[in-house]
Design a protein that fits this description.
The protein is 42% helix and 20% strand. The protein is an alpha/beta fold. The chain has a five-stranded parallel beta sheet, sandwiched between helices. Helix 2 (47-57) links the parallel strand 2 and strand 3 (64-69). The chain is globular, with a radius of gyration of 15 Å. The N and C termini lie far apart (45 Å). The structure holds coenzyme A. Coenzyme A (COA) is lined by residues 7-9, 11, 14, 16-17, 20, 36, 39, 41, 72-73, 88, 90, 104, 119, 123, 126-129.
Length: 158
């Protein structure tokens, strides 16, 4: 069974992330979305909430699971029996950082393969911090994040 891990902070999940998850779920037998619990970005939403949002918007995908993790990504991937790490690339700006991370993860675990998926061009400008900034200004989030979580994001900024 080919298992892939799709890691990130998902603070919150966007339509760009969901597009990658849907496409990865067609390529791999199982996809585990890994939510980084404590990262330096000081998340707006708790890890539990971020996991719950992802579970809600991926409920139509039978082979997708979501879990949170702390520590090294390669250790989380190993614990999930995953041989592949999936990352989305939006623009060339993402490349240098992702390239470095992929090499570092390879150095930490030589069996760990990172595979990149090009983000759907419709979503290449979306990021979680943009979503949070827009929500803070009471902007329209439709089209940026899945409809099922819009009210919860708005409520956070009320
Ligand atoms: N569509 C929309 N937005 C996307 C996207 C897509 N397809 N892919 C990425 N993004 C956005 C994210 O929302 C995020 O936006 P933000 O900066 O506004 O929050 C940004 O692009 C960066 O995303 P990503 O590269 O996935 O980084 P991340 O911070 O969400 O997650 C981890 C990074 C979890 C993969 C990484 O920190 C990690 O592996 N940590 C564990 C520790 C470790 O093993 N470190 C390496 C060895 S020291």
């Amino acid at each position: 069974m080919r298992i892939a891990v799709y890691p990130g902070s998902f603070d919150p999940i966007t339509n760009g992330h969901l597009d990658i998850i849907e496409r990865a779920s067609r390529v791999f037998d199982k996809v585990v979305v890994g939510v980084l619990k404590n990262n330096s970005k000081k998340p707006k939403f708790s890890a539990e909430k971020r996991v719950e949002f992802i579970e809600r918007v991926t409920s139509h995908l039978d082979n997708v699971e979501t879990d949170s993790f702390e520590g090294l990504l390669v250790d989380f991937a190993k614990a999930q029996n995953a041989s592949v790490i999936i990352k989305g690339l939006r623009t060339v700006n993402d490349f240098e950082y992702e390239f470095q991370m992929a090499l570092l993860n390879k150095a930490l675990d030589s069996e760990c393969e990172t595979m990149f998926m090009m983000t759907n061009s419709k979503y290449s400008y979306i990021s979680s911090s943009m979503v949070n900034e827009l929500a803070g200004f009471k902007g329209d989030l439709s089209g940026l994040v899945p409809a099922e979580i819009i009210d919860d994001i708005k409520a956070k900024y009320e």
